[in-house]
Design brief:
Blueprint (H helix, E strand, L loop, with lengths): L3 H27 L1 H8 L3 H9 L5 H17 L1 H20 L4 H28 L6 H26 L4 H22 L6 H13 L5 H7 L1 H34 L5 H26 L5 H22 L4 H17 L1 H11 L6 H30 L1 H21 L9 H9 L6 H16 L5 H6 L4
Helix pairs in contact: 1-6, 1-7, 1-8, 1-11, 3-16, 4-5, 4-6, 4-16, 5-6, 5-8, 6-15, 6-16, 7-8, 7-12, 7-15, 11-12, 11-15, 11-16, 11-17, 12-14, 13-14, 13-17, 16-17, 18-19
Length: 454
């Protein structure tokens, strides 16, 4: 069994991927106005940058490739090569002398991000213990929220340097990616994946992961649920991650430095809420109530910004506070946790690849549409769209919250799919975990009523 200390150590290494994911998105976002002015970009070209970046289609394609590769050849394969691809992309952006070169850099960076995310969340979940899985996923989400906080702070400091400052940001991401590559190459392979492959080799029981994924009613149910929770939230978060400074500057009349400062504060709040909220209480609190609170705060933030406007400082800061905290305890953290719990080992990463593809591809389409809505119909209409999307995610996640808290991955797989998807060792572990809970079943009726999702 992996110790808690060893699990946390590997989680920290893997979580750098999440830092680089969000960091690359906001590095592009913080300099979007500068790149637009430098190359004289049209609104379509601006949308295309967002669509093919780590924010959307680039990451979508990367996930569709990286997910099944991780299931077939191991999680470690991704960590051996992924950061090298990421560095190629950031170097191209750093030295971009034309729009095609800039666009290519954004696309390659996005492919690397997409390939790394399913492998990283899967690896973290498979190397965690039953009572610290949400904590470790929370650590990875903390890194994801820390990326924008750091990049926006640096973006604010480097803003007086203009476009050179943004090039420096991508240079820093390149250096961090190199450090991540060195650290992640030393990771061991996931034992769950190794055991699965050993079982398939000895038993001869092999199945096509995607054929099984799309033909099983249970896996289809959770696919639709998780896409519903994550996609509708991510349409808003993705547009914000790439376009929010642009919105502050064009619709709110703020300077580039002021826009970056607001985003820096927002992401600092997200990082704090992730670490002291989701990571601390995700393994203990009622999942349905916890999810609802975060989703409701997200919707409230956009209601205030949309109908109170950006002319008043109180509405801007209320938006920053509500969204910042909600993003730390909201849909992405829950998706990262549930997506690794609700599918068997043999297509755990591949299923995430499919979902991440759908989610980020939809964000890519929205990245092309959103600037057009903003410029032609105005911010109030665009904001109303955002509110509607957030409410859909809230309803889906609150009604169909899965009951996975405190259970091992093997127990969850047995409950959802039966023993068909478990190896002999996994069946034995599921038996032991269930028996251990039976011995400790002396909890009071009141405790069970307070924790109905356990």
């Amino acid at each position: 069994m992996v110790s808690e200390k060893s699990s946390l150590k590997s989680t920290v290494r893997v979580s750098i991927t999440n830092f680089l994911d969000s960091g690359s998105i906001v590095a592009g976002a913080s300099g979007l106005t500068l790149w637009t002015q430098h190359f004289g970009l049209s609104s379509f070209q601006v949308g295309l940058l967002g669509a093919l970046s780590a924010n959307a289609f680039g990451a979508a394609l990367g996930a569709l490739i990286g997910g099944p590769l991780s299931d077939k050849f191991g999680r470690k394969l991704i960590y051996t090569y992924d950061m090298l691809v990421y560095m190629l992309g950031t170097i191209l952006v750093m030295f971009a002398v034309s729009f095609p070169m800039l666009l290519t850099g954004f696309l390659i960076t996005g492919l690397a991000v997409g390939a790394g995310v399913p492998a990283s969340w899967t690896y973290i979940s498979e190397t965690s213990q039953n009572d610290n899985r949400a904590k470790n996923i929370g650590v990875s989400q903390f890194a994801w929220s820390l990326g924008p906080a750091v990049i926006f702070i640096l973006g604010t400091i480097l803003a007086p340097m203009g476009l050179l400052g943004n090039r420096i940001l991508f240079g820093l991401l390149t250096v961090i990616a190199f450090i991540a590559w060195l650290l992640q190459r030393g990771l061991g392979e996931s034992k769950a994946w190794q055991d699965r492959k050993a079982f398939e080799k000895s038993s001869g029981q092999k199945s096509h992961p995607y054929r099984t994924l799309f033909s099983n009613k249970t896996s289809l149910k959770w696919l639709f649920f998780l896409i519903g929770v994550y996609m509708f939230w991510n349409l808003v978060a993705g547009a914000m991650g790439f376009f929010m400074p642009y919105v502050y500057e064009t619709a709110g009349g703020l300077s580039n430095q002021e826009a970056n400062m607001l985003q820096a504060v927002l992401w600092i709040l997200t990082a704090v809420a992730t670490y002291f909220g989701f990571a601390k209480y995700g393994d203990r609190a009622n999942h349905r109530i916890f999810f609802f609170v975060g989703a409701a705060m997200a919707a409230a933030s956009w209601i205030i910004l949309t109908y109170a406007g950006m002319a008043q400082s109180w509405s801007l800061w209320a938006f920053v506070a509500l969204w910042g905290i909600s993003a730390g305890i909201g849909a992405q953290a829950w998706y990262a946790l549930w997506a690794t719990e609700l599918f068997p080992t043999q297509f755990r990463a591949g299923s995430q690849g499919v979902m991440f593809f759908v989610v980020r591809a939809s964000a890519g389409v929205w990245s092309i549409i959103f600037p057009a809505i903003l410029s032609s119909l105005g911010f109030t209409v665009a904001g109303t769209f955002m509110i509607g999307l957030l409410l859909v995610s809230l309803v889906i996640g609150t009604i169909w919250t899965p009951k996975t808290r405190g259970k091992s991955l093997e127990e969850i797989t047995r409950e959802q799919y039966g023993d068909e998807f478990l190896t002999d060792d996994e069946k034995s572990k599921a038996d032991r975990d269930t028996a251990a809970k039976g011995k400790g079943a002396g909890s009071s009726v009141a405790q069970q009523m307070m924790n109905p999702d356990k």
